[in-house]
Model the fold of this input.
Amino acid sequence: MTNPSTKPRDLRPNEMTIVEAARALRARELTVRELWDACATAAHAKNPELNAYLELFAADDTAIELAQKRIDAGDASPLCGIPLAIKDNILIEGKIASAASKMLENYTATYDATVIKKLKEAGALFLGRTNMDEFAMGSSTEHSAFGATRNPHDTSRVPGGSSGGSAAAVAAHLAIAALGTDTGGSIRQPAGLTGLVGLKPTYGAVSRNGAIAMGSSLDQIGPLTKTVEDARILYDTIRGIDPLDSTTIPDGLYSARQTAEHLRIGVPRHLLGESVNADVRAAFDATLAKLEQQGHTLVDVELPTSGHALAAYYVIMPAEVSANLARLDGIRYGHAARGAALLDDYLLSRTEGFGPETRRRILLGTFVLSSGYIDAYYRKADAARAVLRQEYEKAFESCDVVAFPTTLSPAFKFGEKSDPVSMYLEDIFTVTANLTGMPALSAPMGTVERDGKALPIGIHFTALHQAEETLFTIGNAVERSR
Ligand code: GLN
Done:
């Protein structure tokens, strides 16, 4: 069983996967400088149209030369010399990290996020910081304070969000791979809508130190890549316990997860209903049928509380947002405006600094945590979260992964979901993995046609805590079935 990504193809360097580029670098078919130049040139040429990057960094000659030296000396790190795109909410020392907000427009990071430190140690290079929904709140990248990102498959459509810039950069070959963050689907949904692989690791598998917090009990950093193998490489590099993030977990905390060659795929058919577009549903069923032909088995699973997951998420997440963003008040941190009195300083700074979606969520979060309402909203949502986790653990007694389409439909047009609730519905299948802390992966499952354009869609799998290996196994099987 050959992985498609290991076959040498006739490609321009920026079109390569991590595996292909690492091989070409070691075969002396390519230098680190040539690989960097190919990505940087493509990025400069295409970015005015796509707005995938908020900033493209100048070449770091020292890092490029060092990576080449390491490769020449036989260094085996697959990320050595690989140019990556980094979401604008992950800190790189000396670079701006704005979370696509006016509030942090001029904030320069004073240290590297733990994931960046690990990538630097692996010899990776950074092309630039990518556009996103402000503070990672959204499913389309339309909520960026610096303009929307376009989907390279159809520029009249969104790339998904909130990691839409990272997704568009990789899908358009303006980077070999990228990092995003995922609080309710922000890696997996844009991966699905741009034809990439996206992984949300187990909560605590990857350090959040140096990631600008949105919902601290939900956030994880993870990869957006062209193949499952590339996602594994990035994940293996960035994961691990970190003294700077006390929520990181040691290997084997949830017992060793063995992965069988043939998996039991749980399908919650009762949840797929009428809301999934007919052609997305057909592609989903066809992919499952091909997985069955490979020897995997399909089992029906019931997840009765899943219907309430989105509501629980949209209570818990804004509650955490309202707390996390409180420090950005123009006095302690962030955009500072000055008014007639101290109260005006706060009001002006926060009104000018935050966009409308961010303000909506701060208000919502403050409300659900207020003393009169915390029992009715926040505590209920938290209870639902516990039930969801139990239900999933029960379902995993009869299956190894749970499958959904990543989204109900392919990429939508700009402005199509201007009603916030219709935008929130984009996350219906992805939020549960964040609420339960379980790992989840989206892999491409072909395209559907809209307005004469072939638009990518994804298939989504959730597994038990620390069962990323099972997700890679099923993701590889999906790749082989295409
Ligand atoms: N789209 C979801 C939201 O708006 C998820 C965002 C995310 O994962 N960062 O909250």
Observations:
- The domain at 13-238 is CATH 3.90.1300.10 (Amidase signature (AS) enzymes).
- The chain is about 35% helix and 15% strand.
- Residues 136-139, 162, 181-186, 214, 317, 427 surround glutamine (CB under 6 Å).
